[in-house]
Amino acid sequence: MRLCILGGGGFRVPLIHRALLRGRFAGLVEDLVLHDVDAVRLAGIGAVLAEQERTRQGAGPVPVVTTTTDLRAALTGADVVFAALRPGGTHGRVLDERIAMAHGLLGQETVGAGGLSYALRSVPVMRQIASTLSEVNPHAWLIDFTNPAGIVTEALVPLLGERVIGICDSPIGLVRRAATAAGLHHLARPAAGGSLAGVDYLGLNHLGWLRGLRDTGSGNTDGAADTDGARDRLPALLADPERLFSFEEGRIFGPELLGVLGAVPNEYLFYYYFAREAVTALAGSRQTRGETIEAAQRDLYPGLATAPDPAGRWEAARRAREDGYLTEARPDGQQRDAADVAGGGYEQVALAAMSAVLTDRPEELIVNVRNDAAGRLAVTGLPADAVVEVPCRVDGRGAVPLHIGRTPSLHQLGLLTAVKAVERETVTAVTERDRDAALRAFALHPLVDSAHVARRVLADYEQAFPALSRLWA
């Protein structure tokens, strides 16, 4: 089996390679093709992978790794394509953040104004890649990590149909942490072959809620026999401050808000529920998250290919990067839990999805998929062709929602429909070359509080990224 990774010089690629060397995915991939437009990054990550192979424990087959800057060559012959691109690079992320902040808005890469700027760069690139893939390799599967993943996936479904699946590790991480706190330890690693039948999670990418955790009969609870396997364990968790403070989302949102909501939000909802605090915290930071990452990568990549211990240098940089994730949501200098920093996110979800579509051995994963992929709406109140993020069964046919007719609460539906309208205007702006649609996206976003500001921030993004202006020319 051949796996192609677009964005092959990316920071997370060694995690994918590591998972292919040992464990449940070892031996699944024979050829690993890394594609990137940056030859320096490709060489550096190639050196990390070579050292990981040399120092691996145990025996067995390892994938043959090749690198290329030729897109068509990379896509040709691939069974599965992982796409993890950042058009504009890390400096583009810095501009996304800083321009939003200059207008008093949230400076975040996927949420709010910065996320829309990022999407306006990502969608054209990814649609061109999808067109090329359809031409040279129409039977390949595309698993998209490229952010904003929900918008990008929605833009690709008309081109690739069921052969594109969008992924994010935030929902799986939330389920894992909340299930552990609730004593449902069999759900603690849902990306590794577990069942999500008892998980009520719905939303869009970076905008979802865990609304129920039912034990489906494994008996794997806090040491007691499961006499009522259908009982929802989430209400008891929400009523127990000690357990809530044992995991990241419980600390971010706090017992009071979680009790009011009756659900555990995805961590990215911090930017909606605490918008004022998030803007203040980010504005008061000496560096944006993008500037921190840009500086770290500037130090890491140039000498990585010739370093005596490239894998060690990369691992140290990875841990530092992970520990700085969402710091604005963790007051008083709180550090991330070791389990959250240890990895096991994107790569496990992506490889589980890959394994399922290739082997037809089903996996249950929370992924981005058409709302009507099961023949009926998975989330009521949203359009049939809207991409939603829900628990799915993934197999040789693609991803199909596990649950039908999930009804959001009124406040959930309000946020979902508002943000989905913004996402669709963003896609229209690209596919129809329509600047008015782009302006509507900015003006209608819940985190952009003025149409005047929307107009000015879009103009500033156009000045910073000339390719945006060329979209409507």
Automatic annotation (TrEMBL):
The active site is at 169 (proton donor), 268 (proton acceptor). The keyword Flavoprotein does not apply. Mn(2+) binds at residues 168, 206. Its cofactor is NAD(+). The record marks 109 as: Increases basicity of active site Tyr. Substrate binds at residues 93, 147. Coiled coil: none annotated. InterPro entries: Glyco_hydro_4, Glyco_hydro_4_C, Lactate_DH/Glyco_Ohase_4_C, NAD(P)-bd_dom_sf. Residues 201-448 form the Glycosyl hydrolase family 4 C-terminal domain. GO terms for biological process: carbohydrate metabolic process. Gene3D superfamilies: Lactate dehydrogenase/glycoside hydrolase, family 4, C-terminal (3.90.110.10), NAD(P)-binding Rossmann-like Domain (3.40.50.720). Keywords: Cobalt, Glycosidase, Hydrolase, Iron, Manganese, Metal-binding, NAD, Nickel. GO terms for molecular function: hydrolase activity, hydrolyzing O-glycosyl compounds; metal ion binding; oxidoreductase activity, acting on the CH-OH group of donors, NAD or NADP as acceptor. Binds 1 NAD(+) per subunit. Belongs to the glycosyl hydrolase 4 family. This is 6-phospho-beta-glucosidase. It comes from Tersicoccus phoenicis.
